[in-house]
């Protein structure tokens, strides 16, 4: 009987180590990655709204503040707002007209929505795995289900 108890305790420790060393870090990482995608969605949503405001107002020039880094701002004059530079990734910026930028943003938003969905499914899968491990532990210890 004592041998069986030791075997169960070893199994429980292995299950707990698996959860702590593998599943929980994977879960934290997946949530962080999804949060980054949410931030990108917000950036593109804000850009889209700003372009639409510029289109409605018919503004051809603009005075704004630009963040130079470390929350240091400088006033900037934009003599021609009909073209904008958009960060397309990997450090590259592309000059777009407003309509081209809106088309690009629509494509990017669809891709980001798919990424959010993928990360959400991954998070749900990891949580399900964690739940299964804890159910296995409960069975090993022969505890009643909650």
UniProtKB/TrEMBL annotation:
It holds the Pfam family Prefoldin. It comes from Dioscorea zingiberensis. It comes from the Eukaryota. CDD domains: Prefoldin_UXT. One of its GO terms (cellular component) is mediator complex. One of its GO terms (molecular function) is transcription coregulator activity. GO terms for biological process: positive regulation of transcription by RNA polymerase II; protein folding; response to cold. InterPro entries: Prefoldin, Prefoldin_subunit_alpha. This is Protein UXT.
């Amino acid at each position: 009987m004592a041998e069986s108890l030791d075997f169960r305790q070893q199994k429980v420790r292995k299950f707990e180590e698996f959860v702590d060393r593998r599943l929980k870090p994977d879960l934290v990482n997946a949530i962080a990655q999804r949060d980054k995608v949410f931030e990108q969605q917000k950036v593109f949503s804000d850009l889209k709204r700003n372009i639409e405001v510029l289109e409605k107002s018919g503004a051809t020039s603009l005075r704004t503040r630009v963040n130079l880094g470390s929350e240091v701002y400088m006033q900037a004059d934009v003599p021609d707002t009909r073209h904008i530079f958009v960060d397309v990734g990997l450090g590259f910026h592309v000059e777009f007209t407003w309509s081209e930028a809106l088309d690009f943003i629509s494509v990017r938003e669809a891709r980001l929505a798919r990424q959010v969905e993928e990360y959400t499914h991954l998070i749900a899968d990891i949580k399900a795995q964690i739940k299964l491990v804890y159910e296995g532990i409960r069975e090993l210890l022969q505890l009643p289900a909650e």
